[in-house]
Design brief:
Layout (H helix, E strand, L loop, with lengths): L1 H7 L3 H11 L6 H13 L1 H20 L1 E3 L4 E3 L2 H13 L1
Antiparallel strand pairs: 1-2
Helix pairs in contact: 2-3, 2-4, 3-4
Length: 89
């Protein structure tokens, strides 16, 4: 029984990796079960998933597709603001 619980109930760090992974690729059945089992018990990881999806959506809105060049494009003011914030780090 302990082995089954260790397989199903992953630590939060591993669960957040699965949350991020599911945004870019399909999870295996085992990973989906592990993710759901952990989220049933962990409000923190549920909040992380909501915030992660929100951040991804907001960043996606910053970019526009240039149909002529098929490249992502960002407003110069936003680029400069990001660069300024990165320099502060």
């Amino acid at each position: 029984m302990n082995t089954v619980m260790r397989i199903l109930l992953r630590p939060c760090k591993k669960t957040t990796e699965l949350i991020d992974k599911q945004m870019f690729t399909t999870l295996t059945i085992r990973e989906k079960i592990q993710l759901q089992a952990h989220k049933v018990l962990c409000n923190t990881c549920n909040a992380y998933e909501v915030q992660s999806k929100l951040i991804d959506a907001l960043i996606g809105k910053w970019f526009a597709t240039d149909s002529n060049q098929n490249k992502a494009r960002m407003d110069e003011g936003k680029k400069n603001k990001i660069i300024d914030e990165l320099r502060k780090i």
